[in-house]
Write a structure and sequence with these properties.
- This protein is α+β, with helices and mostly antiparallel strands.
- It folds into two domains: 2-63, no CATH class; 81-126.
- It is built from four helices and four strands.
- The chain has helices spanning 47-52, 59-63, 81-102, 105-126; strands at 3-5, 12-14, 32-36, 42-46.
- Strand 1 (3-5) and strand 2 form a beta hairpin.
- The longest helix is centred in the last third of the chain and has 22 residues, at 81-102.
- It is rod-shaped, with a radius of gyration of 25 Å.
- Bound molecules: zinc ion.
- Zinc ion (ZN) binds at residues 6, 8-9, 11, 45-46, 48-49, 68.
Length: 127
């Protein structure tokens, strides 16, 4: 797998390999592309940087691209703030309803809390 340094952010990214053949495909897709800019200069850029370039990119625009972390794996939290908020609100509402319906606030709280957590996760996934 060939790699090349992105001119914009300095990351090492995959480029379209030529090692694939009929029997052994180079299945990993390339992560960058060589662009010829409007000012005639050529730059190898990862797709993230290509996306960040202005409409008519110049060498100066490439130079001003921000550096990126080597790893694209961002440590996203398991559940987003939106999911937590929705889950909490659902849990409280369901706990109150459960407490009234079941005439047992403790059970209502547990059931409501569990359902609220599930709803929060579902809301998070659905986005
Ligand atoms: Zn880049």
């Amino acid at each position: 797998m060939s790699k090349r340094t992105c001119d914009g952010c300095g990351r090492r990214v995959r480029i379209g390999g030529n090692r694939g053949n009929l029997w052994q495909f180079d299945t990993a897709s390339p992560e960058g592309i060589t662009l010829e800019l409007t000012d005639g200069t050529e730059h190898f850029l990862c797709f993230a940087c290509v996306d960040a370039l202005p409409e008519e990119p110049t060498a100066a625009a490439v130079d001003s691209l921000p550096p990126r972390e080597e790893s694209t794996q961002s440590a996203a939290p398991l559940i987003s703030p939106t999911g937590v908020t929705v889950g909490l609100v659902s849990a409280i509402v369901l706990a109150l309803i459960g407490g009234v319906v079941l005439d047992d606030l403790t059970t209502g709280l547990m059931v409501g809390g569990a359902l609220g957590a599930v709803i929060g996760l579902l809301v998070d996934r659905a986005r």
